Amino acid sequence: MLVHGVGGATPQQMLDDPRAVRITGDETAAVYRRPDDVDAELHPERDRDRDGPIPEAYCWSHLTSGNGSRALWLLLLPFMVVNLAHWMRPVTKGLSKSQRLYGVLVRLVALTLTVLLTAAACEVALDLTAWQCAGSAECVAHRSWLGFLSAERQGWWSQPGRRLALAATVPTALVGFLWYLSNRTWSAYEAQRPPGDEKPSVRIRPTTPDVPTPADAPMPPDAPTPPDAPAAPGADTVRPALGRPGFWYGRRLVARLRAAHTAAGFLTVAAALTVAAADQDRRTGSGPLSAVGTLLQAALVCCAAVVVWVVCGRGRSERRRDGSLDGLLTARLPEVSLVLLALAVGYAGWSRPEWVSGGAAPGTLVFRVLALAQVVFIVALVVIARRLYRRVPQPRTAMRGLAGPAVAMLACALGGVMTGGVAQRVADWLDGDATPGMDGGVIPGPPVLLSWQASVIPVLIVLLLIPAGTLALRTERAARALVPVVEREYGPVRGDTLRSRQVAGARARAALTDAVPRLVGVVSGASLLLGAAAVAGSWLSGEVPGQAARGTDSFVESVADTAQAVGSWLIGLGFVLFVTWGRRAYRDPAARRTIGILWDVGTFWPRAAHPFAPPCYAERAVPDLTWRIVAWTRRTGGRLVLSGHSQGSVLAAAAVWQLPAATRHRVALLTYGSPLERLYGRWFPAYFGGGQLERLSAELHCWRNLWRATDPIGGPVRVSAHGDRPEVDRGPLTDPSAYSRTVEHPLPEPILGHSDYQADPVFAEERAALLDRLPPPLLPPQRDDRRAQDSSGRSSA
Fold this sequence. Notes:
Number of helices: 25
Mean pLDDT: 81
Oligomer: single chain
Protein name: Lipase family protein
Low-confidence stretches: 197-237, 544-548, 780-797
Organism: Streptomyces corynorhini
Structural class: mainly alpha
Helix content: 40-55%
Largest sheet: 8 strands, mixed
Number of strands: 8
Shape: globular
Number of domains: 3
Transmembrane segments: 71-89, 101-121, 164-181, 259-278, 290-312, 333-350, 365-389, 401-423, 452-473, 519-542, 562-582
Strand content: under 5%
Radius of gyration: 30 Å
Keywords: Membrane, Transmembrane, Transmembrane helix
InterPro entries: AB_hydrolase_fold
């Protein structure tokens, strides 16, 4: 069974046959065979004429690619990144309270990102558009589509509260869309129950009408039991996390977080309306309306406290399939918050003829509170992660256990830069040729913190040039040092300087993957310092947006203005490039191979911290593989080599962990170009660390891993030999296969790197060796009737 990697592949390419036939599955993910092999189990005599085993391909590329509109998922990148931080927890041994606190802190950081996104939408729609621009006659003069909201026309919509109430439909629709998208993608991609909830099918159902459907075969004597069957007395019931029944089915947590985050979004919009109207009522001394505003604010605070309690109160349950749902209080949170939002709309829209909008809308303090809360949560995460790592130190763990906090910081930085940049760009667009908040500007502009966040983008880029330049120099030096090594490895050949430099350069560039932790550490550390500086600068510069550097030296003022303008334009350009690259990655396989690995690593993991993150394709792919393997081995008693390339090797390992012991005994694992240890083992040590991979090797009958030194993604899994089991790794394989032109290779051989492992003769050699090491196929009991003979033949295939 072949499982492709990140770049995706067609079943025709995987099977090397243009006539691939779908055996089972749908257009999203399916299992394919060659037409001659559809009913191979019925004709075991064909094995005598076959050079190798029956090939079967599992194609899952449509789970992460397809329609170009899925590029919009890239806008949810901060949510995906913070979800990754949950899975980067260091290996734990005891310290269960610290482990739970780690999960709580990551979920709180994720909650602040939802509030930040909604607050940014409120800033653009309510503050900049409905409050500032619609309240300025000069701004409306250049924006005719805002004419009906103009305060100069004295119309029904001219009152600030009513303008705000109308503009609130934009962030409300955004939150509603995120809720719908999260619910729909869960049903379409992730609601796949693993084997054990029902008896697996024992039939092969070909899609071609001319292929007969074979009859059910009798079960082999030692047919594997379902994964949820009671364990035998004395059996080891402690399973790795990825082998637990509920790992790939967390319905309750996703539903719980979805309700809480949806409620948080609606409450943020309601708070923006209520604070603005209540501020006006307090200033004018309106007794009844002021009392209503106080009660509504108290209700919003109570509901927000319930949301925080729901987020903190429960984490993932992996030891069993968590298919139940929470009680009425949690399930009805979105409806309750929506009712409060409707009351806030009515309260803000109440007639207040004397109300005039001026300056920035009240409530901009929320951005400072969110930024400060994120800094506090990240620092707490650093303390907890460091404590967990010191308890069980793992030498190969990325950033010494601080990868989770660093990635969470990157998520916060992405959220802050995106919200600050978008708000600044919209303000520039509304203000025309002037600069918001400056001399000649017609609107005050966004809150000063968002202006500071936009201003730090050029500074961050300049800081990134230092480690990027350092890595470039080190790579060049490493390539030069590898030139004589390459020539020695290929034996007595005539030196070709250009060829040697090509091979050495490919190896040096492939080694850049191992430097990613240092780069992430630099970026996250700089983001933390610059974010803290932005919060401090916004507090010291007062509440007037756009005036962050006023009153200082003229040079400093000029630099600050330039940084703010450049940052604003960079975020606008980056936003366009972001969506463009995203669409290209889903349509162009070459572009997908370039940037797809990061996206597929992010969407491999279930949504454990943020329910609005892109859907997890593995919650569909892993049950697919597990069902197919369990059903086929139950029916035929045959042997199977599970062959995974790149990300497919991760899916294969996850599926093997889910198999029952009797089935796992009949499965061999062949991985190549695998990031199991190089990426997953270092960044997700609690799930793919050295101990977990060692145990996977011990549970499998046999496993072999192929790798190349020119591969920037795959590498050795570093599982040593034990007992009669040989070492798992074989490599590095020779790449290119020939140094210069020879009789066998008259044309120059390419440097394959991460691709075409099956073209190497070692692949077929190791696959044959794995089949030889597996136990022989099981034969069902013999019967006298013809059907039993057919069944026996099918089972021995």
